[in-house]
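Hi V.,

You were right to ask for the full record rather than a summary. Here it is.
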Amino acid sequence: MDKEKTIDIIAKDMSISKEDAQRMYENIGSFSDILKKAVVGYFNGERKNYSYKGVSIKDIMEKENASYLNAIFSMDLLMKNPEILQFYDKFTFKKDRVIGKND
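Predicted structure:
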């Protein structure tokens, strides 16, 4: 799949601008091997439920009411910042901000 088509799919799936989708596309290169497999699977029509320290992509999808692709990016955030896991049940991650349960 070509870069522009991939960026268009990311923008549509995650409801973000093409500029933001471009940045997200560039971030895929820094993903762990598992998340890279999840992204490739996504573009091939597969939805595997990978997990990290007890939090799965499906968990994130349900908690954030997010798409599979958006959950992959949230999983990347958790993997790169594992200290977030101690607060994970108390917060929901939405694009550029963290929202507390009572917000």
